[in-house]
């Protein structure tokens, strides 16, 4: 019997077909041969961010995941070549705006390295403190996204409610909720007063208390553990091989943290632990970050205490090493049309999601970088993320995705 | 846009006997589709989370475009995402609405002259723009409220009132009078040279390491450029050899693969920075080795067999500069970029330049 | 002919004193003023009286009003609002509010329903079009047919000794239709979703049946009216808690409640079988799980919670037991939707493992308990 048809009045526009994103042509043939289903996850998908994952599934088991990033590639590296050095500070923090202080810190430190200037003590502590506040915020963000990927909506809402506090801290310090652009070459944009320091310390206490509730409802939830334990395992050897970074590398048993290995700012004067786990599965990747929140709270407290003991003022230096109370006035005159000495300057920063690398190549004549190479943590661990998915079940895709806290704008730059 | 789809949607809602019910339903049930397009998604998440709770107004973030009626475009739309946005919009059932948040979506914001972005309002009709970089959650919620009012009353009203000023009065000049535009502050050298030179640093371990490396690679020029940074200059035929030696030395992952374009010297400088996770002393050390390859025939062997972690960076550099890494299976395909963008990071790919019109 | 029908309807009609009673305005020694009951107003008009009698005819009333369609509608509207509201309250926020501030946004689901009702219905090119449109409507059959055999006190359509069994058999047709919907959608995610639905179906259905059977053995009858009568002293949940637990978990699996919200997983397969549905037909298929939840909760309260047993409210007459059943059902549904706030979802293989191992073992324990209690004729003792 022929299937009868009913006319559908709306015809799709002809140009729609040309809009489909290119799929490697060999993929369809390969999947037919291998008795596979090819699923396209994203960019419009409840469990995917701004990227597309091409998943080859055999039965319920993932054979391979082919990433298709670049949906948020905005060409930061090229744009940076056409802007003044200090104009690039807001630019480089846009890829991961919840992690703004860490993102701009790496770039600014590369400039400072080229100019060979030493930042005032107070600025160092402020930078460290805010970098850790951003780290707490980002880890909470990732925990929220992970929860919602597992279908746990309360686990999404609570960390986001706590994130409001980190936004509030940034707002009180810099004036912006999320995109602070606070770190400038030579120091920070403005001083932090005593009231704000008290608020930061209170906020840390609150986050610490409330994260206990979160622990009960999500972290120790049997369903969460069942979903993430032994899922997406990256052994120590594999993690090194695929160049995974940050908490995800430490979850595989490698004790590598840029803050400890190559300390910058005030990190060598503070006491904290590098959190390491051995399992390398999704759950330990998550737990490492949960524990890092506690460490970061400790670091913030130490910074607050140190800042309270320090005299206020003196938060920046100019190119010649002269101390400044404020970046108003001479600062922009000296730094505005800055020209760096020729050479190559590379800094490593421990951003929330891992190592962040900036390489400034300067020709010594232009007042814009000749080439700015940015490698963000997301871009580093994308390979490891894809490899860890092999052999998982289809439903694990979201658990592993969330456990890596993959944030496409950061990876794509 | 040939037809004003939004006007049609409003027309549909406000026509017929049961118009009040239709309008009421659409007004209190603006479900936003989960299409995260850019970094403003952070503030969108805040708007729907406990802090601001946009669900109070009946708006809910939902999975699929088929079951929703609102797209919140979050900031930048890249050329690649534009297709997805258009498809999502086409597949959404009428009546549907679009709110755009973020400065990037309006005129590009910080990324206005980027090679990979486009303007969302050229792709789909938009009801409300929310400026800001990123806008606050309150901004987004007030856009939702404004959209509700628009559905109810059928007319679009802006929520912000701008003060009008007489420019001539403000600047003390007549507008329209020709003036010489000021010089842009940007100063880019005509014939730049990239000089990477040794630097004297106090670094005992580095001196030892450099000696060791020099013994192994007599063909290369090895020096320190800073503490913990070693630079190796060599010829392109030794590229793989250096990689092999460094890999045996304990450098187990790639930190960065960089290509520097020098058009006036007709060459690319390929720099590969490696470091180690497994050897503790080498952890802070980054060894960069660079080779020069001709710009018109940019071919170089892939290092994927030494370091699998270099894979995506090679694909990226292939996208950016058109350098062909022989041995990487992905070569010839686009990875990060939309199909129409070709080798954007070469120096002869010019971006639109900012123009300064008036000076105070 | 008509009078015969009228007589048939009237003989078996629902007695609600609140409506059929006359309203006394004032009453003195020798004068009485009253408004005659509405039903008797219509009783003299030829066709209307037939319609009114039909409405109050028990089988018709059961399917259309209580515990049928109208009750389902009220339950769904309430439970969707409750689900969103309670989730929001746990998550430190308000949830739906501004649509009707005074009553906490309780009409929010109606607004959503209206929006769906007037939205465009898209039938995509790849769909098997007739089936794609027909299946959502066919779902009403397995949802409403069980109502015929599930009594609410004295309101019932068919009084049969197999009522529980027939009801469970009809309810278990619903997943078939969901699978068929997924097939008709002809999309990759719908395919994965229907496979998940089919897998889940096998893992919970047997447990559900065994748990119900073990109770039937204890009561010695599958007739819902007798089962409830037996529970007038002690509710079934105390007699056989294992069966109650197994039935409870099986309901959660059957209606894709958390932590078993696997076939429709929003973040994994984006509503699985229902991915391509738009407008009002999505509204129909989306409520399917809630309808199923309503039916199964009703069965649970009949089997374990003493059904419509409760203090009799005289003005409501026949509606009183129906009200008690409805309240128990709603209470159970509230517990099920509350799980959303503190559970993530299991993976498919984990859910299957739970279904086939732990839950099956529990069901077996329940069956043995049921057999034991049935053998000693515990109901006779009580």
What does this entry look like structurally?
The complex is a heterotrimer of chains A (413), B (360) and C (382). By secondary structure, chain A is an alpha+beta fold. Chain A has one domain (89-412): Cytochrome-c3 Hydrogenase, chain B, CATH 1.10.645.10. Chain A contains 17 helices and ten strands. A three-stranded antiparallel sheet of chain A has the order 1-2-3. Chain A has a three-stranded antiparallel sheet with strand order 8-9-10. In chain A, helix 6 runs antiparallel to helix 16 and helix 13 (282-309) runs parallel beside helix 16. The mean pLDDT of chain A is 84. The longest helix of chain B has 17 residues, at 137-153. In chain B, 46% of the residues are buried. The mean pLDDT of chain B is 82. Chain B has helices at residues 5-14, 19-27, 41-48, 79-91, 103-107, 137-153, 167-171, 204-216, 239-249, 311-321; strands at 31-33, 60-62, 70-74, 77-78, 97-101, 117-118, 128-130, 221-226, 229-233, 253-262, 267-275, 286-294, 299-301, 324-326. Chain B has two domains: 5-153, Rossmann fold; 204-326, NADH:ubiquinone oxidoreductase Nqo5 subunit (Beta Polymerase, domain 2). Chain B has ten helices and 14 strands. With 360 residues, chain B is an alpha/beta fold. In chain B, strand 10 and strand 11 form a beta hairpin. Chain C has two domains: 2-56, no CATH class; 122-381, no CATH class. Chain C contains 21 helices and two strands. In chain C, strands 1-2 form a two-stranded antiparallel sheet. Chains in contact: A-B, A-C, B-C. Chains A and B meet through helix 3, helix 7, helix 10, strand 8 and strand 9 of A and helix 3, helix 4, strand 10 and helix 10 of B.
């Amino acid at each position: 019997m022929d299937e009868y048809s009913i006319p559908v009045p709306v015809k799709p526009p002809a140009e729609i077909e040309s809009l489909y994103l290119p799929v490697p042509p060999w993929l369809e043939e390969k999947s037919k041969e291998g008795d596979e289903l090819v699923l396209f996850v994203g960019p419009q998908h409840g469990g995917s961010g701004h990227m597309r994952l091409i998943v080859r599934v055999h039965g319920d088991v993932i054979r391979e995941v082919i990433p298709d990033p670049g949906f948020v590639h905005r060409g930061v590296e090229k744009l940076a070549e056409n802007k003044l050095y200090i104009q690039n500070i807001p630019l480089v923090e846009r890829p991961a705006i919840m992690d703004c202080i860490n993102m701009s810190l790496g770039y600014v430190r590369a400039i400072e390295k080229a100019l060979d200037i030493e930042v005032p003590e107070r600025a160092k502590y402020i930078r460290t403190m805010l970098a850790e506040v951003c780290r707490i915020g980002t880890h909470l963000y990732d925990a929220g996204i992970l929860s919602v990927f597992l279908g746990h909506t309360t686990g999404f809402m609570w960390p986001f409610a706590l994130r409001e506090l980190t936004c509030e801290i940034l707002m009180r310090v810099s004036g912006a909720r999320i995109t602070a652009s606070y770190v400038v070459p030579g120091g920070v944009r403005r001083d932090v007063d005593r009231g704000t320091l008290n608020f930061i310390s209170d906020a840390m206490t609150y986050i610490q208390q409330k994260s206990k509730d979160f622990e009960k409802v999500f972290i120790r939830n049997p369903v969460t553990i069942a979903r993430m334990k032994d899922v997406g395992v990256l052994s120590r050897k594999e993690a090194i091989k695929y160049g995974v970074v940050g908490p995800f590398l430490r979850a595989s048993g490698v004790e590598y943290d840029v803050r400890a290995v190559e300390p910058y700012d005030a990190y060598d004067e503070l006491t904290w632990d590098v959190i390491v786990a051995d399992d390398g599965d999704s759950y330990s990747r998550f737990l490492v970050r949960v524990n890092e929140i506690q460490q970061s709270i400790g670091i913030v407290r130490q910074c607050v205490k140190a800042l309270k003991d320090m005299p206020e003022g003196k938060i920046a230096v100019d190119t010649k090493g002269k101390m400044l109370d404020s970046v108003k006035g001479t600062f922009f005159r000296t730094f505005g049309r800055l020209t760096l000495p020729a050479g190559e300057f590379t800094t490593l920063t421990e951003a929330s999601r891992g190592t962040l690398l900036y390489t400034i190549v300067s020709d010594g004549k232009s007042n814009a970088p000749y080439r700015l190479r940015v490698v963000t943590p997301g871009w580093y661990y994308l390979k490891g993320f894809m490899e860890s998915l092999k052999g998982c079940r289809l439903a694990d895709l979201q658990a592993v995705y969330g456990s890596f806290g993959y944030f496409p704008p950061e990876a794509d730059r | 846009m040939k037809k004003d789809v939004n006007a049609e949607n409003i027309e549909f809602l406000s026509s017929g006997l049961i118009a009040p019910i239709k309008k009421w339903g659409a007004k209190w049930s603006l479900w936003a589709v989960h299409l995260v397009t850019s970094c403003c998604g952070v503030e969108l998440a805040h708007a729907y989370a406990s802090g601001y709770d946009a669900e109070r107004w009946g708006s809910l973030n939902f999975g699929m475009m088929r079951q929703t009626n609102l797209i919140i475009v979050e900031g930048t739309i890249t050329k690649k995402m534009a297709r997805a946005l258009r498809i999502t919009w086409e597949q959404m059932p009428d009546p549907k609405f679009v709110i755009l948040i973020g400065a990037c979506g309006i005129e590009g914001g910080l990324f206005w002259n980027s090679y990979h972005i486009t303007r969302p309002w050229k792709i789909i009709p938009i009801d409300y723009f929310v400026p800001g970089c990123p806008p606050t959650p309150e901004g987004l919620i007030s856009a939702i409220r404004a959209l509700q009012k628009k559905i109810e009353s059928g007319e679009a009203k802006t929520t912000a009132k701008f003060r009008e000023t007489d420019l001539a009065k403000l600047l003390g000049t007549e507008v329209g009078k020709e003036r010489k535009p000021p010089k842009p502050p940007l100063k880019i050298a005509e014939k730049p040279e990239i000089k990477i030179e040794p630097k004297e640093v106090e670094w005992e371990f580095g001196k030892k390491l450099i000696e060791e490396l020099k013994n192994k690679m007599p063909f290369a020029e090895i020096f320190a450029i800073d503490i913990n940074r070693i630079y190796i200059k060599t010829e392109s035929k030794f590229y793989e050899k250096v990689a092999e030696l460094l890999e045996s030395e304990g450098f187990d992952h790639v930190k960065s693969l960089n290509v520097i374009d020098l058009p006036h010297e007709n060459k690319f400088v390929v720099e590969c920075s490696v470091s180690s996770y497994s050897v503790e002393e080498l952890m802070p050390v980054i060894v960069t080795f660079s080779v020069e390859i001709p710009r018109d025939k940019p071919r170089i062997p892939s290092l994927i067999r030494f370091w699998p972690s270099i894979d995506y960076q090679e694909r990226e550099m292939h996208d950016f500069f058109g350098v062909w890494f022989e041995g990487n299976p992905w070569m010839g395909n686009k990875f990060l970029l939309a199909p129409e963008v070709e080798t954007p990071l070469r120096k002869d790919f010019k971006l639109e330049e900012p123009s300064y019109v008036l000076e105070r | 002919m008509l009078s015969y029908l009228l007589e048939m309807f009237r003989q078996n009609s629902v007695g609600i004193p609140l409506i059929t009673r006359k309203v006394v305005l004032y009453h003195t020694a020798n004068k009485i003023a009253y408004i005659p009951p509405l039903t008797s107003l219509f009783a003299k008009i030829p066709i209307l009286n037939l319609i009114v009698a039909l409405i109050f005819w028990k089988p018709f009333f059961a399917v259309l009003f209580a515990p049928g369609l109208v009750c389902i509608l009220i339950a769904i509207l309430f439970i969707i609002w409750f689900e969103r509201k309670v989730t929001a309250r746990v998550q430190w926020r308000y949830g739906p509010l501004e649509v009707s501030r005074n009553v906490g946004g309780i009409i929010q689901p109606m607004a959503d329903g209206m929006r769906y009702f007037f939205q465009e219905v898209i039938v995509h090119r790849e769909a098997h079009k007739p089936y794609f449109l027909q299946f959502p409507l066919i779902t009403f059959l397995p949802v409403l047919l069980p109502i015929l055999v599930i009594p609410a006190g004295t309101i019932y359509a068919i009084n049969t000794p197999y009522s529980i069994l027939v009801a469970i058999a009809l309810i278990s047709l619903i997943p078939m239709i969901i699978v068929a919907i997924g097939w008709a959608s002809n999309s990759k995610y719908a395919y994965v979703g229907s496979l998940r639905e089919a897998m889940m179906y096998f893992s919970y259905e047997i447990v559900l049946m065994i748990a119900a059977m073990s109770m039937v053995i204890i009561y010695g009858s599958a007739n819902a009216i007798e089962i409830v009568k037996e529970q007038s002293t002690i509710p079934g949940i105390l007699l056989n808690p294992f069966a109650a637990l197994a039935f409870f978990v099986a309901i959660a699996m059957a209606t894709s409640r958390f932590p078993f919200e696997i076939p429709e997983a929003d973040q994994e397969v984006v509503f699985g079988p229902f991915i391509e549905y738009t407008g009002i037909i999505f509204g129909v298929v989306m409520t399917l799980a809630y309808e199923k939840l309503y039916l199964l909760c009703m069965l649970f309260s009949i089997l374990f919670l003493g059904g419509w047993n409760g203090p009799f409210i005289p003005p409501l007459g026949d509606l009183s037991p129906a009200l008690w059943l409805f309240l128990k059902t709603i209470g159970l549904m509230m517990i099920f939707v509350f799980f959303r706030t503190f559970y993530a979802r299991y993976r498919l293989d984990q859910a299957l493992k739970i279904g086939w191992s732990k839950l099956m073992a529990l069901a077996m324990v329940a069956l043995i308990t049921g057999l034991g209690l049935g053998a000693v004729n515990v109901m006779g003792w009580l």
